């Protein structure tokens, strides 16, 4: 047999030339031979696909080079496991990072095609929900940019979260159909297919050394098949891989049943398997929903780990050096079951004893925590895991025994401390705490802002921190400046290049060179002109989609994020109602024209969040149609928030609303995107707002409200919100108007429970922070009137936001956690 040559001996394809003429020729070639269309009858979506294929070919050249380089060098690989990757549209991102935007534009113009028109047809990949998924996408791009070999692992959702529509102001969830016409960016990898099991039983057998070994025999098996999408770094220095798993049954159809007339039953296994990758975050209010969520998490975790171990064995004789060559980052608790699965694979499949397997596992995994909300730290009923993953439940008990014995014998933990660190919550129905499993099974646990990390040590993981005091560290989140400045705001990018040169394109922290221009009146005027152009674009989008006219010269006040009570969209709406009352009551005053924009999705089973969306729309309907307001205030809720919508809204914002209850937002990344694009922030000292204030200067950010410590103290003291409300005339009038049905004449009691929650316990400190928030908004008005001062602060925000680049974050992960 002929010896297979090494990768170093095989030639690489010759990189393609990328002049406009050659690009145009290749676009025609793809249109003709790959899509089967004549230029005469080609539609815009055909031109889009043909253009993507031409861009993709150039990515593949760098992709193969990157992959071979890692294999030949033996470099350590990072594997980023995340249930979400909110990557958005990819064409502009790829063109920009390949430095091909102008060449592609010219090539298409020569063919009579408008790049902007076809780029707008690309669907957003429905692979995420909010900040968690967008962070994963930014991190993947930054890992390629800073030259770290990496794979992202997730699920190839057919419908993703959901497409949000409004029906009389209520959120309606519809399936997202982003894959309906295929995905030209992805490559199916049939060779990367793995069996994933569920249910069944565990048998004990004698191993070759006469020690007992455990054999899991699943009752149900599905096949996970990989689909790869290349992720291009800046200037295509490296191209990494996003590998997403799709599920299919082992037997797609039961022919006997089908031929017997049971057509539905014959497809039962197929439908059951395919349901695994249909929807992101299926509602878990029912046992069936909980089971599907856990099945999804195990499905992608198991497939990813099998793939990682296979790749490792292609280069190395065994797994003893796995932590030296592999680092696996868990993005939140969703993939935490990976810890038990790696232990199972090492012990049951590859013959390791428990202790060496545990040492390898702990050194390989690291865990990013994204929440301080106990209810958001996943836990699963013990009976559910025992039934669905019986071998993993055994391993969880074994891990728990090891940790509890260590805590009791070496650290002399009390019974109460033991209860808190246990993987099994015994306080009610017995549940497995996935956050504790991720913590105990990882060598590093990081928070995502300085405040969040310190609060982790004091709250949700205080006893685990006492047991393992060296594990918690901070890695403040970041955003990729390629997507969130260069691509979404080309006008500002061009102005910055004209003022300070191109160094900031390679290193966002070089934006500090812009500082002196904040005092340059001519530069401020150009900066304001760019902002005005972006606001016109948003105003046009709102009119086209919703038929609402907004004035681009008004202050654009924007809050876009997942709808949740702790993020306090409700506080913003109540302040809008109070402002509405003031404008009508005092028409003689010079009110600043303002448009309050909202966008975001509520979880389908989150009643109060959906009620807040309805309230925003009800308030908008009344305010926007009241002639007494004279157009000085408008409220707009834009449906179906996604990355592409954010790319229009972020550059258009004058004011960024980051108003979560202090101590509850882990970091936030929207705050960074807005600041980078020259918006002023109004916010609490929560999450990364704390560090933003340090970087941009306290005088260039508007801070209000209780601190995290004050929130904790207020809750402990059980302060009476009713007294606070009655002591604030504006607040009490606004709450009364909402509760009495002023904004819901068709159902006057619609919001009574929402308002009662503020009167009775005010857990999210809406009443407690209202007066401070309202005063801060009037500070904003005064600043807006003084336009030179406003734009001085806006320029300084852009100049000082470079530290919040995800490139900096990833370098810190690589140095401190991954050792990559």
Automatic annotation (TrEMBL):
The modification N6-(pyridoxal phosphate)lysine is found at residue 673. It comes from the Bacteria. Pfam families: Phosphorylase. InterPro entries: Glycg_phsphrylas, Glyco_trans_35, Pyridoxal_P_attach_site. It catalyses: [(1->4)-alpha-D-glucosyl](n) + phosphate = [(1->4)-alpha-D-glucosyl](n-1) + alpha-D-glucose 1-phosphate. One of its GO terms (biological process) is glycogen catabolic process. Gene3D superfamilies: Glycogen Phosphorylase B. It is an enzyme of class 2 (transferase). GO terms for cellular component: cytoplasm. The keyword Iron-sulfur does not apply. The keyword Transmembrane does not apply. One of its GO terms (molecular function) is glycogen phosphorylase activity. Its EC number is 2.4.1.1. Keywords: Allosteric enzyme, Carbohydrate metabolism, Cytoplasm, Glycosyltransferase, Pyridoxal phosphate, Transferase. Its cofactor is pyridoxal 5'-phosphate. Allosteric enzyme that catalyzes the rate-limiting step in glycogen catabolism, the phosphorolytic cleavage of glycogen to produce glucose-1-phosphate, and plays a central role in maintaining cellular and organismal glucose homeostasis. Belongs to the glycogen phosphorylase family. This is Alpha-1,4 glucan phosphorylase.
